[in-house]
Fold:
Amino acid sequence: TQLLEQSPQFLSIQEGENLTVYCNSSSVFSSLQWYRQEPGEGPVLLVTVVTGGEVKKLKRLTFQFGDARKDSSLHITAAQPGDTGLYLCAGVETSGSRLTFGEGTQLTVNP
Amino acid sequence: DSGVTQTPKHLITATGQRVTLRCSPRSGDLSVYWYQQSLDQGLQFLIQYYNGEERAKGNILERFSAQQFPDLHSELNLSSLELGDSALYFCASSSGLADTSTDTQYFGPGTRLTVL
Structure:
């Protein structure tokens, strides 16, 4: 089983600050996905990155897939309280469609 | 709303008991996945079904079993329950595309199981 390490585990910042969440593995994934999960709900897909070196932007969120397809990062600029939630990275294994999830980053943005 | 439904939303039971969790995938999706989310282990893949057949198995205990029916809904059966089985159980569905790298999984709202 391929493993994903996500950091930091907890992040508490003030509104307007920037932040980066990292997702690292020693294994190659066919693609990397980022999810956001609210309390009492299932994870919701934010983005899928497929190509090594790929960068995708979703408003204030920037997602990057490492050149070797082993790591990824999520950067949020000018964070807002509405960004508060659990952010999960998940790798799609090269041998199939199962997802391997990182431990998650609990982000709190204080007004 | 992801289009994936799960019932029940909450389940409280005692150790040693057996429960069944139900999942209805999004219309048109052929693949169903089950995940367990606990505080100490995060989201763990349990098992995947595609069009009624088991396709992949993860960290699923022998006390747990699942199946996918002809109408594509799925059930996860948990037996001889232990305190440590208390967790959120999520079902996800996808179209089951051949290109698995872009086959998006849509998650249901989950079933919170509490074993007392």
Q: What stands out?
A: Chain B has a mean pLDDT of 93. Chain B touches chain A at residues 2, 4, 31, 33, 35, 42-45, 48, 55-56, 58-59, 90, 92, 94, 96, 100-110 (CB under 8 Å).
